[in-house]
Structures are given as C-alpha cells and as structure tokens.
Specification:
Layout: H1 4-11, H2 14-17, E1 29-32, E2 35-38, H3 54-67, E3 77-83, E4 88-94, E5 97-103, E6 106-108, H4 115-119, E7 126-139, E8 145-147, E9 152-155, E10 159-162, E11 167-169, E12 172-178, E13 184-191, H5 207-218, E14 235-245, E15 250-251, E16 254-256, E17 262-263, H6 271-290, H7 298-322, H8 326-338, H9 342-353, E18 389-392, E19 405-408, E20 418-421, E21 427-431, H10 436-448
Helix pairs in contact: 1-6, 6-7
The structure holds flavin-adenine dinucleotide (FAD).
Length: 453
C-alpha cells in the first residue's frame, strides 16, 4: 500500500493490527514506470508505504468495523435497488433467500463491475487497452538466493535479478516481489501487437504458462514451481487494461467509492490509496447527512474525482513507459536523466503519495488548507476521531468552535500555529498566528463542516 492511505490507517490504529506499530516508513527508493527514483534526494513530500496483503488488510478493517457495531453480512448479494424520495431499498439474496434492506443511502463499494453502478444507470466511460496481457504467479525458485541488501535475487547461470520493481526489456516487462511467506510473486507484461503476448493460452493460468511468459520477456529460463502447502497461491492471467471513471459519483441516494467509481492500471499500486481516501471522505459526509446536513454530500465528488483523474493520468503514463518500442526507449532515456533532479523526484513522489491534488478552498486560504495533514510530531495519534480536531500549536484563537475536539500540542518549531483537521485527515483551516479574522474564518469552516451549527 503506497501513499497517504498508509498514514490514514496509522491514524486509526489499523497499521498496528497489521504488525506495524509505528508510523508507516518513508520509502528510500521507488519507481515510476520502472524508472528508479532515489527518494532520498527529494526536498520534501516523502512517499509512505507499507507491505501487507490485501486479505490481511481486509481482516483488520473487518475486525474494526465489527468492534464499532457494524452489521457485516457475508455471502449476501445485492440484486436490486428501489429508490424513493426519502429512502432507498436494497434487494438482496442471502442463504435464507430474498430480503430487503431499507436505508437512507446506498454506497456501491463493490468493485470494478459494480452492480450498484449499473442499477443506478451510471455510465463508466474510459478506455480499454486490449493489447496488453499480464500474467503472475506465486512461486518458489529453489536455485535462487535472496540478497536483501541489494534488493536482488542471485540465480546461477542467469545472474542478479532486480526485485520490487518493473524491469523493462525489448519484449515487455517483468517483476519479482518477495513475500513474507518466503515465496515470490513473479509477473510478466506483454504487448500482443508486437507479437510477444502468446494469446494461445486458454482456461485458468498455470505456473508453466507464467514461467514461459517470463522467459519470453527476460530472455532466460527461470526454473520455478508452485509453493508447497494448501495456498491459496496467486495465479492469474489478465488480458487488457481498463482506465475508467464513473460519469457521476452520485445519483440521488446512491453513491460510489473505490473501484466502483474508478479503475486504472495497477502499476505503482495506487488502488487502495485512492479508494480508501474516497471511503474516509465519504464517511464523515454521510454521517453528517444522516444527522440532518445532507449538503455535506455535495463536496464528495468535487474532492474525489480530481484525485481519480490524476491517478488515471499517472498510471497510463507509467504503463506506456513499460511498453516496447524505440520511441518509448527514447522517452525513458530523457526521463531517466530528469529524475536525477531532486525537484523532479519530489514532484513524482508527491504525485504518488497523494495524488497531488488540493481539495477546493478559498483563494486566500492558508497554504496547508486542502492538503493532507502534514507529518507533525504527535498529530497522527489524535486523528482517530469522528469529529474535526483543532490542534493548538501555540496559535489557535481563544474562542473555540463547538463540535470539534481540541488538542494542545507542544511541538518544537511548529510549522503552523493552529490546524483544523477533518476526520479524513485533510486540513480544513490553518493559521500561523491567530487574529480576529482567523477566529471568524475558523468559525465559518466549522459551520461548513457541520460542526458549529
Ligand atoms: C493484479 C492487481 C494487483 C493490485 N495490486 C495493488 C497493490 O499492490 N496496491 C494497491 O493499493 N492496489 C492494488 N490493486 C488494486 C486494489 O486491489 C483495488 O483498488 C481494491 O481492491 C479496490 O477495493 P474496492 O473495495 O473498491 O473493491 P474490491 O476490492 O473489488 O471489493 C468489492 C467487494 O464487493 C463485493 N461485491 C461485488 N458485487 C457485489 C454484489 N452485487 N453484492 C454484494 N457484494 C458484492 C465483492 O465480492 C468484493 O468483496 C491491484 C489490483 C490488481 C487487479
């Protein structure tokens, strides 16, 4: 998981459940379309990241939801929606047969093929690149030795193989990712229009098929086999790639979030970052709406669609950079020169961390307003709060709005005097030192958030 979502989960204590008790680490190196980025040269905006499996993350989120009294129903399929002026009814099928669930709103967080989106009649425009085939398998490579300090795999007869990144060759791209269990996730990307993507494979993917794809791309045979034990072990073939964004995130009482609202290439791992941030942005707005402030829902798409647009841009750019062709090689050569400039690394790190989109705010708003809360010592510990949090770092107005949690923090050389942080971690208001004008602005912002009515 890459980017701000890692900090978001830290703020909620969910990373600790995943065995990461401290703040998420700042990466030293990353990649953009397989071009290495030395993040230690970036002047600011380091990139956060945490290694976990999606299954473990989902279990941790489910455990927290359960503790908070959420009624989580497994094996319950949504099959229909009936919308009235004040309520909406979900028609579901579970083990006991058909049932109806009455609600104020329905949020479709049901993935790329969202039934909710279809039932609401919301289009999903975008592009499908059907020339690309990706294959991946979780395997063991018994002859290989892991060299963690160089992030390489040493294989007799083949040499050193770079880990954790896409490696481009004239025939496609390959990657190898060590797993905590000691296995490796190996992946190959091939483009059919260059005659490299063998499309003769039918039926479920197999380890020999993935090994053959790696051999075509890499030019060397890597002896690999399925791991011992019951699994499940990842094994997949995927033809085509989609970049699509829902034509609207809301129709009446029906809303969309995560992959139901946007899909893009997985390169750079932006999916959970953008999807989890949709969820937290919508959550406090929905809570306000059901308590009587429905206007709060208006800001959801305004804030989140530009983030999805930005992810669509950088994932398509990264996919192009991995594809074969002399022009792409030339573009990579230029970009490889530019990423030696700290300012370029910083821009790319900010793009991947965020994305680099400021939420709409007044033209004269403080420079931190509209951005994810900066990494100030002690702030993250106070952000598992359903209400906005006013941090007084020595410059908050004496008059505090109602409905916000106030935290006084003593920080050496604070970068700002006071901050109002929304439940989704974004700064709603900030001031360097407070005068009467700031107190009025703070009050207005708190009212806009539904807190100081
Ligand atoms: C190969 C691959 C690798 C990836 N790697 C990464 C990575 O390293 N990092 C990263 O951040 N992201 C990664 N992603 C993207 C990430 O997996 C998705 O962005 C993320 O899972 C989206 O979450 P979601 O909850 O929106 O949808 P999903 O995870 O698709 O969940 C949707 C849920 O809705 C349920 N559902 C569907 N229809 C119905 C219905 N009618 N009734 C009831 N339930 C229904 C489904 O069963 C499912 O549980 C990767 C994706 C792929 C394909």
């Amino acid at each position: 998981m890459v980017g701000q979502a890692a900090r978001l989960l830290h703020q909620r204590g969910i990373l600790a459940r995943l065995g990461h008790p401290g703040a998420p680490p700042v990466g030293q190196a990353f990649q953009f379309g397989g071009i290495g980025l030395d993040l230690t040269t970036a002047p600011e905006s380091p990139l956060h990241g945490v290694s976990t499996s999606q299954q473990e993350l989902e279990s941790a989120l489910a455990a927290r939801a359960d503790e908070m009294g959420v009624d989580l129903r497994r094996s319950t399929e949504l099959v229909g929606i009936a919308e009235g002026p004040d309520r909406v009814t979900a028609r579901v099928l579970d083990g006991a047969g058909p049932a109806e669930i009455d609600a104020a709103y329905i949020v479709g967080c049901n993935g790329a093929h969202s039934r909710v989106r279809d039932l609401a009649g919301i289009g999903f425009p975008g592009i499908t690149d059907s020339t690309v085939v990706s294959r991946s398998a979780e395997v063991t490579i018994p002859a290989a030795t892991l060299v963690p300090e160089r992030a390489e795999l040493e294989l007799p007869g083949v040499g050193a193989l770079g880990l954790y990144r896409w490696n481009r060759t004239p025939r496609g791209a390959w990657s190898m990712l060590p797993r905590a269990s000691g296995t490796l996730l190996v992946s190959a990307l091939e483009w059919e229009h260059d005659g490299n993507g063998d499309d003769s494979d039918e039926g479920p993917a197999t380890v020999p098929e993935v090994a053959a794809a790696i051999e075509r791309v890499l030019g060397s045979r890597i002896p690999m086999s399925a791991p011992a034990g019951p699994g499940p072990h990842q094994l997949r073939r995927r033809r085509g790639r989609n970049t699509r964004i829902a034509e609207t995130y809301r129709r009446g009482r029906i809303l969309l979030a995560g992959d139901a609202a946007h899909v893009h290439n997985a390169v750079g791992a932006p999916g959970l970052n953008v999807g989890l941030q949709d969820a937290v942005c919508l959550a406090w707005r929905l809570a306000g709406a059901v308590r009587g402030t429905p206007r709060l829902l208006d800001g959801y798409e305004r804030e989140r669609r530009p983030a999805a647009d930005r992810v669509a841009v950088h994932t398509q750019a990264q996919t192009l950079l991995l594809s074969p062709g002399a022009e792409v090689t030339a573009l990579r050569a230029l970009l490889s020169e530019w990423v030696r400039e700290p300012v370029v690394v910083g821009r790319l790190a900010t793009l991947l961390e965020g994305p680099d989109v400021r939420y709409p705010c007044d033209a004269d708003a403080h420079r931190l307003t509209g951005w994810f809360v900066p990494d100030i010592d002690g702030v993250d510990h106070h952000l598992d709060d359903p209400r906005p949090v006013l941090f007084d770092l020595g410059g908050a107005p004496a008059e505090r709005p109602h409905g916000v949690t106030v935290v006084e923090l003593a920080v050496a050389a604070p970068p700002v005097g006071a901050l109002l942080v929304r439940p989704d971690g974004y700064v709603a208001w900030a001031a360097d030192e407070s005068g009467p004008r700031d107190a009025t602005a703070l009050h207005h912002v708190a009212v806009a958030l539904g807190s100081d009515a």
